[in-house]
Each structure stands twice: as C-alpha cells, then as structure tokens.
Amino acid sequence: xxxxxxxxxxxxxxxxxxxxxxxxxxxxxxxxxxxxxxxxxxxxxxxxxxxxxxxxxxxxxxxxxxxxxxxxxxxxxxxxxxxxxxxxxxxxxxxxxxxxxxxxxxxxxxxxxxxxxxxxxxxxxxxxxxxxxxxxxxxxxxxxxxxxxxxxxxxxxxxxxxxxxxxxxxxxxxxxxxxxxxxxxxxxxxxxxxxxxxxxxxx
Length: 203
Prior knowledge:
By secondary structure, the protein is mainly beta. 0% of the residues lie in helices and 59% in strands. The chain has no helices and 20 strands. Strands 10, 11, 13, 16, 17, 18 and 20 form a seven-stranded antiparallel β-sheet that branches. A four-stranded antiparallel β-sheet has the order 12-19-14-15, with no helix packed on it. The radius of gyration is 21 Å and the shape is elongated. 24% of the residues are buried.
C-alpha cells in the first residue's frame, strides 16, 4: 500500500504498512508505527518527553565514511569529503554537524587538522603531540542567504587542543563541499591519519 499526505493531519494510534511520503506537517497525538519506507519532504518535529507545545527538530545522519586516510608527504591531504545537497541549509538556523576522528604518529612533527566549508578553510589545530587520538566536531549554521557561521573544536586525550569560529559565504542553493584535511610537517608516512567522517543534520 502507498499514500501521500499533503496537509496537516492529526491521528491517534496507527500502524501503516508500505511506502509513505509525508509532504506536509503530521501531528502525532499517539503512536505511529511505520513498517515500510517513510519519506519526509518536510522537516519532521516531535515533542520531547512529556512536554507540550515545544517542538524539537528531528535529526538524522546524511553521510558516514569509515576508511583510513593517511599522510604520505608534507602536503595537505584530503581526509574525507561530502557534497552537502543544494538547499539543505534552507532556512536561517539550520545546522549541519561534521565529525571526524583519527590518530597521531610517534614523531613530534607539527600535525595540522583543517575543516573546509566550500572554499573557506579553517585550521583547527597544529600540534606536535605524539601517539595520540583526535576527534573533530564542526557545526555549520545558516545565518542568512548564502551566509554561514562555522565553529568547531578538536579534542585529544589531553582535552580540547584547538577551536575555531568563523564565517563562510557559500551559495546554499547549490551543493556545498564539506571536507577535512590532514598534514604533517615532516612528511613521515602515516604520522597523521583520519579514520572516519560523519555528516548530520541536527536542527
């Protein structure tokens, strides 16, 4: 079975099998069990806990990459990359979160981690830490038409070792490339690696 919902619908407990497309706002006053594929072309919301009238935006994973990328020279090396679809940042306040993680090798060279929102790059950390683990989190927030705030940090075993706040002016009606890069000043193979990369819509 299939159905298309295009207005505001309030329902009680329902079990719906088959593929569904929700193109408007669905207000669920009880339990909805969807046993097929559900597609939401509008942004679904929910009332957290026992709250009433205060809605939270549903969040979701856009992209996950789990592969090891390592430096092999002194040049800046792309870790992972994802083209954020056009109009993902559709209204002011929309937020995308990027997470990446990896390892640092045993040599005390300067190891640099950067994040790019389109063509705008941000250096989060340059460290000589050795035999360590790193985790990067960056948030891209739409502040206006073709305008974004970018803030983030890198955490290692010793705590927060680098943070950034800046702005970008990427065209949000087109795809925006989100990527990380890694670099080692000494060029020793695998002195810095990136092991994984996630992109999420969080609001």
